[in-house]
Design brief:
Helix content: 40-55%
Shape: globular
CATH architecture of the largest domain: 3-Layer(aba) Sandwich
Structural class: alpha/beta
Largest sheet: 8 strands, mixed
Oligomer: single chain
CATH topology of the largest domain: D-Maltodextrin-Binding Protein, domain 2
CATH class of the largest domain: Alpha Beta
Number of helices: 8
Number of strands: 8
Strand order of the largest sheet: 2-1-3-8-4-7-5-6
Strand content: 15-25%
Number of domains: 2
Length: 260
């Protein structure tokens, strides 16, 4: 009788083993301590970019690595076109999308980590073109304004009534727009102040090549957008790690590498 009981228990354990194992795996997957963060971003230097044959780089990329290290979590980061990055992040729990402007229509789509950095958007002209004058986006005086496709600035300008191929010159990235401005194919350029400095540096041109005409926006900052299913515990853990990095001087030191 005892032998039969042992055999039955063994059979029961064997039959339940895979089920118990799957429960254990599910529990581990839900446990933020064993989670691998997956960061998805676009080419937006100097915040996030990737040179051919090199790993992802940029201020927001390196800051995310510091946050993951501080939180004792592994992290994988990929740079890709924005639509693909957005779709990849939405499809994968444990992911985050960056660098995002935090706007009302996005508020419930993500759980937020940040801010990464302030965001100051400026309208520039070439310093040598004193005849190019404009006071705001509604008074461009016939000048064409360059902006990056699908950017927050582009959406703002379109919402204000500016039209592609009329008032707006649309490009894929800041570097393309800057080359157009230098070639005289447009009169004004919308760019983040630190992106303007970085792109001029890549061309070995002084920052004095450009002159600010007016400030377009500085009301928002850049953030990491965590997947909406991210647990509050993980969100708090990552935010605590970022806050510590800002307190102990590593954040300022990293900024100096990219923005000074």
């Amino acid at each position: 009788m005892k032998r039969r009981q042992i055999t039955a228990a063994g059979l029961l354990g064997a039959s339940l083993g895979p089920w118990l194992s799957s429960l254990s795996g599910a529990a581990a997957a839900a446990d933020p301590t064993v989670l691998t963060l997956h960061g998805f971003s676009e080419h937006l230097p100097p915040l996030n970019y990737q040179r051919p044959g090199e790993p992802p780089s940029g201020f927001a990329v390196d800051l995310l690595r510091l946050v993951a290290e501080q939180a004792n979590l592994p992290v994988e980061i990929e740079i890709m076109p924005w639509p693909r990055a957005s779709n990849s992040a939405a499809a994968q729990p444990g992911s985050l999308l960056f660098s995002l402007t935090r706007q009302p229509e996005r508020e419930r789509k993500y759980k937020w980590l940040g801010p990464i950095s302030e965001r100051r958007v400026v309208v520039y002209r070439l310093s040598k073109r004193n005849e190019v004058k404009a006071s705001d986006i509604h008074h461009l005086n016939g000048h064409k304004l360059g902006v990056v496709r699908d950017s927050a600035a582009a959406k703002m300008l379109l919402a204000a009534g500016l039209r592609p191929d009329a008032e707006l010159e649309i490009a894929l990235d800041d570097a393309s727009n800057l080359r157009k401005l230098l070639a005289g194919r447009m009169d004004l350029l919308v760019m983040l102040d630190w992106a303007a400095a970085w792109n001029l540096q890549q061309l070995k041109l002084p920052f004095s090549t450009l002159e600010p005409v007016f400030e377009l926006d500085r009301s928002k900052s850049y953030w990491y957008g965590l997947h909406p299913q991210t647990s509050p515990a993980l969100q708090q853990r990552l935010q605590a790690a970022l806050d510590q990095i800002k307190r102990d001087g590593r954040y300022v030191a990293l900024r100096q590498q990219y923005f000074n």
